[in-house]
Design goal:
The protein is of the alpha/beta class. The protein folds into two domains: 29-55 and 71-75 and 153-250, P-loop containing nucleotide triphosphate hydrolases (Rossmann fold, 3-Layer(aba) Sandwich); 85-150, no CATH class. It is built from seven helices and ten strands. The chain has helices at residues 44-52, 91-101, 107-119, 135-147, 165-182, 193-199, 233-248; strands spanning 2-13, 16-28, 33-37, 59-64, 67-68, 76-79, 153-157, 185-189, 202-206, 213-218. A six-stranded mixed beta sheet has the order 6-7-8-3-9-10, with helices on both faces. It has a four-stranded antiparallel beta sheet with strand order 2-1-4-5. A hairpin with a 2-residue loop joins strand 4 (59-64) and strand 5. Helix 2 packs parallel to helix 4 (135-147). The longest helix is centred in the C-terminal third of the chain and has 18 residues, at 165-182. It is globular and about 50 Å long. It binds adenosine-5'-triphosphate and magnesium ion. The site of magnesium ion (MG) has 3 residues, from helix 1.
């Protein structure tokens, strides 16, 4: 369970204070997939960094499993827009890195890493170096690396936004499968309404800066979901339309 209660964050800069987030109340139940959308600069990455323990709130409280977040934790995995793989390490060695840092890589871990790579379509690429892979393949490696610690919490900051549309859809489908199987509590930041509706149990829409929770909508479409034709196409369209309207609502920024 992830909980943010009354969370605000202001950055001090040389040209004055920047209020990024204001009074955020938001939670994600165990195993839930929560998407967060909002315009550029509304504080989405700040919100994730607060949950990851990379930043402290200026006010309010962030907790995971009832415990206040005081710093990075091994059961919380992060994935960013760029894969940030180590260029001199093989695909397999990159996936195993988080375990190695904590000093224990055993044969079953290697087996699990190989199985994960195979599951995301990277069978036969275990020994390659990152530069020998496409951007989409590298991001799949980053997903496997995030999952190798069997995290209870998965935080993703626009993980597919640097990829072409088809690769994005394919990866979103794979993430859906991974989530259905491992059920980490997930917060997924995206600019893509389609992606949010495909993946999320609920979608939180943030207002323009300072980011506040404008609305949280529930997506109760059965899984697996798909971008193509399916029995729930009208439900998907209705949610996409609702979110589009919300994102285009221009409310005046508070002073
Ligand atoms: N370390 C920092 N120092 C000063 N200001 C910051 C810092 N980090 C973020 N900000 C400011 O806080 C606001 C929110 O930034 P944030 O990166 O969270 O937005 P975002 O919603 O992730 O945007 P995008 O969609 O473009 O990634 C922005 O105005 C940004 O300039
Ligand atoms: Mg961001």
């Amino acid at each position: 369970m992830i909980e943010l209660a009354g969370v605000s964050r202001t950055f001090r800069t040389r040209s004055g204070d920047v209020e990024a987030l204001r009074a955020i109340d938001l939670s994600a139940a165990p195993g839930e997939f929560l998407a967060v959308i909002g315009r550029s600069g509304c504080g989405k990455s700040t919100l994730l960094r607060l949950v990851a323990g990379l930043l402290r709130p200026s006010a309010g409280r962030v907790a995971i499993g009832g415990a206040p977040v005081t710093g990075p934790r091994p059961d919380v995995a992060l994935m960013f827009q760029r894969p940030a793989l180590l260029p001199w390490r093989s695909v397999l060695a990159n996936v195993l890195l988080p375990l190695e840092i904590r000093g224990r890589v055993r044969e079953p871990d290697r087996d699990r890493a190989r199985a994960q790579l195979d599951a995301v379509g990277l069978a036969g690429f275990h020994r390659r170096l990152p530069h020998e892979l496409s951007g989409g393949m590298q991001q799949r490696v980053a997903l496997c690396r995030a999952l190798i610690q069997r995290p209870s919490v998965l935080l993703m900051d626009e993980p597919f936004s640097a990829l072409d549309a088809l690769t994005r859809e394919e990866l979103a489908g794979q993430l859906q499968e991974v989530h259905m199987e491992l059920r980490p509590t997930t917060i997924f930041v995206t600019h893509s309404i389609q992606e949010a509706v495909l993946l999320a149990d609920r979608v939180a829409v943030l207002s323009n800066r300072p980011g506040r929770v404008q609305r949280v909508i529930t997506v109760d479409i059965p899984r697996p979901r798909s971008f193509g034709h399916n029995a729930h196409l009208t439900d998907v369209a209705a949610h996409v339309a609702e979110l589009t309207d919300l994102l285009h609502t221009h409310e005046p920024s508070p002073v």
